[in-house]
């Protein structure tokens, strides 16, 4: 009886082992089961070294081999991959964005792969070029732009001239179609491009009727104006007759009046210059013009980090790459915790103390009015300076001080001069207050103050206190001032513990 039980146990074990082996090695059929994971977006590194991470290239190679349904063609450098069920048949198709590695200045192209029933494998069905040429700026997503429930492929990026580009392909339907997609829009402009979502009816959302098509808004420089910040808005609407987006209206938009010499310095075309300009804490400005101190950005070019704080949540993104635009900077970034979450920031100069930003989320809809981070931001120092606090210090004064840095002259215009060992440094300054602490900010026009002054950055913030008279704490009447170097960060004021600088009013 015991022998019989042992034999039955061995038989059951062999059957179970054979079943497990059969399941492990049974051929995978993509027709009945398709990929459920979210495809990682692959952005290649660049030669300028702004991408961080020692194993960045290895991660790209791993993600390419893991995500691609078909190996790339000879000489094709994969930039990003998008999976989507365009046919609504429960089988994902794949769109691969690539560029010919032997032609660095060539346009970025896309290729469309679908599952072939006969060969039981994926095959390339179609490919087309886009207007973008810079791989590190490219993003791809899908959206029903025309309201006909036929998805469009939207590819955004920049070209070698520093222009923003958008290329849109519409999914063709019907038995007589020659190609799976047709190009319905391609725009290049030296400003920004946004998609404006129309109000769509409940019947559309319920799948009963069609919806209104999106409008494309492109913003470029007004070449007829001498002010570099004056812009034109060009609207494009879809024409059912031609089957393309066509220009419908041009509107002139008056920009802020800023001293043109200073404006040209900031918008010199060197990404580092604008990075230094936005190296600061920025508060969100609501549509009504009020400051929202519960939502802010902190740009740290030195650490290559961008901090987003909103809804009591802090997100840290690695600052990967910067590209100069006509009015600012286009930044690509990646979340330090969720590597598949990427953000592209289009930042434009509004005034010397405010910026306008549009955020493009990775593989998400890029509509300006719906993005939480889109809008205007004001520099923290200026934001606090113009607050309604009755005790806010006056930002400018007329005074001359001697110090270990040299002779420092403040002018009522907001400019300062620093003379040190025969060298002259000019810049902007502001006195302001954070809480109960009074601060001074010096921002030189040139990138670096002479090394002998002990200052090596482009923005210098000091905590101020009256020196030599403990009873007199008013910095405007004190003869001597004590400066302590600090840094304004997302979490407040940080003392850098450098030696104090005493300013003695010149007689």
Describe this structure in words.
There is one protein chain. By secondary structure, this protein is mainly beta. The chain folds into three domains: 56-253, no CATH class; 260-385; 399-505, Lipocalin (Beta Barrel), CATH 2.40.128. The protein contains six helices and 29 strands. An eight-stranded antiparallel beta barrel has the order 13-14-15-16-17-18-19-20. Strands 21-22-23-24-25-26-27-29 form an eight-stranded antiparallel β-barrel. A four-stranded antiparallel beta sheet has the order 1-2-3-4, with no helix packed on it.
Mind telling me the C-alpha Rg?
29 Å
How many helices does DSSP assign? 6
Largest sheet: 8 strands, antiparallel, barrel
Helix content: 10-25%
Structure in a nutshell:
With 507 residues, this protein is mainly beta.
Please outline the helices and strands.
Blueprint: H1 2-25, H2 56-67, E1 76-84, E2 93-100, E3 109-116, E4 121-129, E5 139-143, E6 152-158, E7 164-171, E8 181-189, E9 192-196, H3 202-205, E10 215-221, E11 231-239, E12 244-253, H4 260-266, H5 271-277, E13 281-285, E14 291-300, E15 305-310, E16 313-324, E17 328-335, E18 342-351, E19 354-361, E20 375-379, H6 380-385, E21 399-403, E22 406-410, E23 415-420, E24 423-434, E25 437-444, E26 460-467, E27 480-489, E28 492-495, E29 501-505
